[in-house]
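Bench log. Compound arrived from synthesis this morning; before running ITC I wanted a structural hypothesis for how iron/sulfur cluster sits in the protein. Inputs:
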Amino acid sequence: MKEKMEKFIAPSLKDARKRITKETAHFYYQMDKRFMGLGKGKTYHLKTYGCQGNLADSEKISGLLKWMGYEKTDNDENADLIIFNTCAIRENAENRVFGELGRIKNLKKKNPNLIMALCGCMAQEEKVVEAIKKKYPQVDLVFGTHNIHLLPEYLEECMNNKERIIEVYSIEGDIIEEVPVVRDHNRRAWVNIMYGCDEFCTYCIVPYTRGKERSRLPEDIIKEVEQLAKDGYIEVTLLGQNVNAYGKDFIDCQYSFANLLEQLQKTSIKRIRFTTSHPRDLDDETIMVMGQGGNIMPHLHLPVQSGSNRILKKMNRKYTKEEYLEKIEKLRKAVPGISITTDIIVAFPGETEEDFEETLDLVRKADFEGAYTFIFSPREGTPASKYEDNLPMSVKKERLLTLNKLINEGYAKGNKRFEGKIVEVLVEGFSEKNDKFLMGYTPNNKLVNFEGDTSLIGSLVNVKIEKAFSWHLRGKIVK
Ligand code: 5AD
Ligand code: SF4
């Protein structure tokens, strides 16, 4: 087969690990006129995997494509451009993408002009790019998390030269402001407050795929939130891999996450959420601001990962089980009735039965109202992928099952406490399972189903909870 590769900049995990303290450069995006109209009459299909960070990136990709004249389609069969925005956090997320790439191969036979692109965290991995280069000729374009804003250029080249482009940077990263967005919702918005991560938890690929921690300027964030409120948005979720480290990279000013939260509390946006928090960096000032309530919602997602101090140390989490429990005690005092959810990894290399028991003990003590639970998945290039891991899969699965049982009790208990109460719900649309019901979320992030008119979608309503189920609440609207 003739090699049609013209451009090839491959990722390097070794380079991606480097951190030098240079000040983050902030650029302001402007689209070159020659790209506008390039997508006219064409459609794109965008598939997003993974976390909210990827959802937010996809909204930027949609924004760029819209400015180019492309229209979105939900059907990949007749799209002119298919983009996979991928996740690298665990192996099964990656396998799903490879499966999809295989399926899409046939579409390419039907439509030779179809452009197939892959971006996101998987693009930042050496082994993925190698595999695509060798085994997936159907992929025309690979770009990483640092160069999303260059998509129009890449598409122009793909269209004109019919050449394959693989361009992935393994740099610390800059901040590109004012990239256009098309938001998926018209009442709820993601707002990036920072990018990257410098924590280097030993199991995690994110610091390699997303670059160094770099914060957006407070004025840019506040302006965006004010504008969203003016445009009718009710809720924002502030995004960062470790939002509590916000501002630590500012060289000439002292400005923290608590400062930002306090300023955003004064804006006219009705609901503020934020994710993800790191237990070590969650400070008293932030807890105090959360305690002032107002538009800050009484829910915190605080990943603990393990309840064993020995494992926490091997994970490089920099806190103990006792410190974690102390922190959530403080939170509960400052924000009465707060819902706390978490992430837990079972079967981290070397986890003994006693270590796992410590995790179960922590879950019992912490009163979590929900959790994402995972079996450890080795990620090439991370320290933990080299740790000895000799536990049979059957034991790993059993631990996950035992943990999930306990977590589910927490879900049910957390829902039950709202029976008979009146809660405010931001109505998002119809329930997926039963379109007789509307659905939305409460300040504590509880899913509520209730009967009501379509006209309520997008507004805040009061609902009296009649019955709590394991995964949702059911109620009736009250005036
Ligand atoms: N294996 C399993 N789970 C992981 N997570 C991150 N890296 C891994 C891994 N290698 C989980 C953590 C994190 C969540 C987003 O994904 O619990 O908080
Ligand atoms: Fe990964 Fe840890 Fe950073 Fe979260 S804080 S993204 S788990 S390295």
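What the model suggests: The domain at 422-477 is CATH 2.40.50.140 (OB fold (Dihydrolipoamide Acetyltransferase, E2P)). The first helix runs from residue 13 to 17.
ITC booked for Thursday regardless.
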